[in-house]
Amino acid sequence: MQADKLITDCRLATMVEGGEPYGAIEDGAILIADGRIVWAGARADLPPHEAIEADRLDGRWVTPGLVDCHTHLVFGGDRSGEFEQRLQGVTYEEIARAGGGIVSTMAATRTASEDDLYASAIARLAGLKATGVTTVEIKSGYGLDRDSELKMLRVARRIGREAGVRVRTSYLGLHAVPPEHRAERGAYVDLAIDDILPAAASDGLVDAVDAYCEPIAFSGDEVSRLFERAEALGLPVKLHADQLSDGGGAALAAKYGALSADHVEHTTEAGARAMGEAGVVAVLLPGAFLMLRETTPPPIAMFRKHGVAMAVATDCNPGTSPVASMTAALNLACVQFRLTPEEALAGATRIAAKALGLQDEVGTIEVGKVADLAVWDIQRPAELCYWLGKPLLARRYVGGRAA
Fold this sequence. Notes:
Structural class: alpha/beta
Strand order of the largest sheet: 5-6-7-8-9-10-11-12
Shape: globular
Order of helices and strands: EEEEEHHHHEHEHEHEHEHEHHEHHHEHEE
Oligomer: single chain
Largest sheet: 8 strands, parallel
Distance between the termini: 25 Å
């Protein structure tokens, strides 16, 4: 077997479902060729091979590169002032209705140049990369006009080309109604669906289509129109669902075969059942739950009961989840939502990949997958969910290359 790289003297948490917890192999090895895994298993079973390079990892643990499947990484400005307001008792909904929240970030994003947006996003991305992330989803939704939405998506594509991570983009035009359309809401919905989305798709800037379905955002009927247009364009959909109230978002996501329904704190059992039947991933966002001081956690027991796969993500954004650490998100998912460490790590690898439609490419250490890997200074995989703030990453590989 010919290989570009051999990785040995390591322990593997392959995250392949079934078998040992974490898919663990205590004395493992990996062969990589052309950026993909061509063999992985116990070192004693290594087939005859020739490798150009060999990396010995001194007994460290190797996991798939972590996948942050829900972020708003590209934006302008800062909303630490709203953080101070919330600490004084002002609710997120009150801030949004007063012209803050998403609309505040919109104004700063519209005036920022592409280079400025890129530079600020790269600074935030550094925290994700330092905590093992090799794939990141990036949404638009802070431009809320044609030029600014396309600008955000171009910046996201640039990050994927230049910043040492794999990027999936999501068009989130139905995120908030911009001030100039407040008196003509329908005109903005038409613009977002019939103008901006087709333009973004035509320019090759969109991998999926997202929306925010809440009373303070967009209705089920408006989201349905968007999803039908996405379907006509051949684009998968996902949804910010049931975060602040039971708006039937989970069932709506299931109706359209969405990749994921995200937040889902107020999802009912009927919604969970529909998600399980449709194979919709529940993306849990404990950073937003913490920052908003929410008290109703996602219905984890119901998701388990109905076979709903659960991913974990940072929701990195300027208002409700200024979280730029995947390991912090894992810790919070365990502490706040009572996921097991194995569930949480699966939620940031195998299941997060499914939430992006990338399950055939990344998320596990197995033959045929892209060689995106994270190497850790830990003694057992549960430490990735245990430590809060301790540097644990030794190195990352992206496409088989140290990054």
